[in-house]
Amino acid sequence: SQKIEQNSEALNIQEGKTATLTCNYTNYSPAYLQWYRQDPGRGPVFLLLIRENEKEKRKERLKVTFDTTLKQSLFHITASQPADSATYLCALYTPNTGFQKLVFGTGTRLLVSP
Amino acid sequence: DAGVTQSPTHLIKTRGQQVTLRCSPISGHKSVSWYQQVLGQGPQFIFQYYEKEERGRGNFPDRFSARQFPNYSSELNVNALLLGDSALYLCASSEDPAMNTEAFFGQGTRLTVV
To answer: Quick one: average pLDDT of B6-31?
Structure first.
């Protein structure tokens, strides 16, 4: 069966450290993968998109890697801050003719302590 | 520029009732998608509309329907509400579903069925 797995347990780290979140998938062949941030009671906010032919993408303190052999994406936040505390969702896009269906993982909650 | 706007933000309905949720996409975006997010889970795809036509449908019963208007705004209708329909309903807009771009989400409508 198709699955997207993210750590269900919250990740607790100290301010200034690097947070690393994992997204593993099975039985998908995604054309690209996206990471979103979601705060309680709010809609997801887009952070980064990485395509199947890209290994790594960076944006400011954020870095995403995509390994289609391992079927895994890693999401890194360097120099983490308490304001980074939120739930982070990975989403896969698998090509379907004419429409864009994102398949989301359950998300990992990140808590950054001062 | 206004982002994706959804109304209402909160709604309480009784089992068996019908509900209509509304979404206005970002100006210039012609595609609207609807997602359901149950507490503790990632968003699940319900529908995508582009240029007023349904482009894709997720694994939801026929009680769920939607439409898109000439101004690209959209409505999601749910009939014969069940307790299990309680969730955050998210609307996402994008430029063109055939383009691999990010989705911009609204703040969601929190539907509670009692």
So the answer is: 96
